[in-house]
Predict the structure.
Amino acid sequence: MKNGDKLLKYLDDLKTEELLLPVFYKPNRVVMLDQTKLPEEKYIDLKNSAQVVEAISNMKVRGSGAIALAGIYGIFMAVLESGGDYKYVEKKKEELINTRPTAVNMHKTVKNICLDLKSIKKEKLVEEIENRCIGIMKKQLEVEKKIGLNGAAELEDGDRILTVCNAGAVAGFGFGGRTLSVFRTAFEQEKKIEVYAAETRPYLQGARITAWELKKFNIPVTLITDNMVGAVMQKGLIDKVITGSDRLAANGDTANKIGSYLMALSAKENNIPFFVSTSKYNIDLDTETGDGIEIEMRDGSEVLFYNGKRTAPKGVKAIYPAFDITPNKYISGIITEKGVLKKPYKEKLEVLSKLK
């Protein structure tokens, strides 16, 4: 088989009409859904690993699973370009890791693909890396479906669930990522749920992406602005909160999209269960607590502009921490592919992270 043919066959065999793939492979290029343009569905062609790195850096793809998927294709393109040069592939691996410092899923994924590179014969390098890429993609899709089943068991008929940003299909490997897998599975079980999506400034992922995905799957959705979160809880409009998680510290503290912490505080005040949906790939046992998680500080200009239009006067400064930390004491349960973890989290996360 030619280079990339196995990947193409794997993708052809998927029931892609049931998936929302954020990134996929075509001969000699990677095709990526430009998530900065959603709900307009615009795809971009990335013809080399450098363009994949740039697209991840520029937020064309986002969400821990989708970033990991982009990382898989970035490494595969690097291997195709390398001519068997292990150092070149290692260099590209580090470039990918440095694009999004908080995205531990992608860090682990590209490191696993590149494990013991030098032990692979150069003439077998492309074939071996291609097999590793496919293996990870198969596992990740199965993880999404298991998270959906476990999380759906926590939802009751008639539940109204609040979420932030997007931990959905295009933030994952196509089925439903983390949080949308829960919503999608519950809905397919004929539970009458409704999702409240916070719009999520400054990129409006909740409005542009989560609402778009929910409409794709015919799940009822109500959009709110970020500063309505406390009010809708006070008014009794929310029964549960489920967010994603880009990184979990060993004690269960979680890094997720900026605004998640405020949701957790409001949920605690209003006696509303606050769940995190994640997988073992996002667990960072080397970081004891949330205080040790590096928070990606993006350019403040991203807050001052939207769609190229300035939204604040010239001379005004802005900051943009892309994530915040929710302490484990506010988390009612952690929805994973192996079940829903309840407090205390540390030992359970350690066990989960070591499971195959």
